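User: I'm putting together notes for a lab meeting next week and I want to include a structural view of one of the chains we've been expressing. I don't have a solved structure, so I'd like a prediction I can at least talk through. The sequence is below, exactly as it appears in our construct file.
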Amino acid sequence: MARILIVEDDNDFREGLAETITDMNHVPFEADSCFSGLNALQQHNPDLIILDHRLGDADGLEFLRHMNKRVYPVPPVIILTAFATAADTVEAIKLGAFDHLLKPLSRNDLISTIERALQSGRHEEIVKSSSIILDSNDVIGNSAEMRKVLKLIGLAAVSNVTVLFLGETGSGKDVLAHLLHKASHPANAPFVAVNCAAIPAELLESELFGHVKGAFTGAISNRIGRFGQAQGGTLFLDEIGDMPLAMQAKLLRVIESKRFTPVGSTQEDIVDVRLVAATHHDLTEQVNRNHFREDLYHRLHVFPIQVPALRDRPEDISALATHFLNYFSNHTKKLSSAALSLLSSHSWTGNVRELRNVIEHACVTVRGTTIEENDIRNQLHPSPKIEISTDELLQLPLSEAVSALERMMIQRALRASQNNRAEAARQLGIHRQLLYAKLKEYDID
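Assistant: Thanks for the context. Below is the predicted structure for the 445-residue chain, given as structure tokens.
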């Protein structure tokens, strides 16, 4: 039998929670504010706290901060909210909350979470934290898939662990990396981003490590590299899957030794940065094809976070579209219901970046205050057709029919495997090398 403190200012909801806890054969204690909750915390020493995020006199995050100063070890805390934001979710997990759940939630989900939280027991780690301030371009999404990502970011924020964001191009990996940085460092700590795919191989070493005067033709002065610029903060290596092998070996040495040498110098510099990387590639495939070092892969794959494609979280499309619309139109335009329906049904192969571009284009071209379905239809890239009927196949020459069928089956397998090429090859019953050849032959991305 556990003692469970409920801090909730909605009387009816609080009583419902207490009834559920009683039915579970636990003992509930009730408080209707942050102040009374902290007093009850001292009085009853609960084994678990169920905490509303928005209280009349404060918010749940303030309760957590005060609790961390007063109680040791701290009990698990389940935060409930009807108004979740990315910053609040990350901050709650960072401050030690066991979970951050959206209202309304089912009785079964509540019971399951309570049982798991009680099994986790008390913990001794106390996290000092300040509020995370997000700008207008930061991540939005309350889908179950995105909330899993945000909770992982909250867990990663309390340490200096290397984080690897995996996901399709345009899915928001760079925004999430910036969010992790804000949750991990003071406001004045540098965040330095490098797109490894956009810098020529022969310049990447100088870009990362800097150089000294005279190191090569054109090096007319000393230059601090991105590692040096990021000292005390975060270095974000975007598209690391495209980094040349020679550079991968040098990066591995920096990760292992915490030291780097500028180009042309004999003096080593000590590096103190939080390393965050991202790629749209399947790095296990890259390793198997000898395009990526296995030892570097294991160094980066300490805390992987899979970022879902936008089509896998369609419930976020409306909120994202509205967010971008308000940003680009300064809250002067709106989407018609038909336009919003069209956006919600689109496959978004370009993910959040594609959605952002479509909304920005509409805000520039539409003169009125309402953006209609026809205003955005021409901006949407048509989803590739991957089906072909038997009648259509029979009308083609044999070679074209075989090619059409192969293309259809490959695209089906890629979709079913969420673009995991190794899994797609397994489903098709062919070697990966043959699949790669077919992808190139049919120009399938």
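A couple of points you could mention at the meeting. The chain has a mean pLDDT of 88. The first strand starts at residue 3 and ends at 7.

User: Perfect, that's what I needed.
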